[in-house]
Amino acid sequence: MDRVKTSCLSMEFTFQEGLSYTKKLTAKNEQEATEAHLTETKMQVEATDEAENAKKRVHHQSS
């Protein structure tokens, strides 16, 4: 089950990175590019937090 969760989180993170990259490529100006970068950074933090929470839940369940 842990591998499934990890794979899902990894796929979500990869999708979000791709979406953010696409937004950067299609940005019409520097402000839009900056906003896309900030959104990407926020998503990375959220994905990292969720992965850590999932890791803690799995660790507590196996204890």
TrEMBL record:
Name the record gives this protein: Uncharacterized protein
Domain of life: Eukaryota
Region Disordered, residue ranges: 32-63
Lineage: Eukaryota, Viridiplantae, Streptophyta, Embryophyta, Tracheophyta
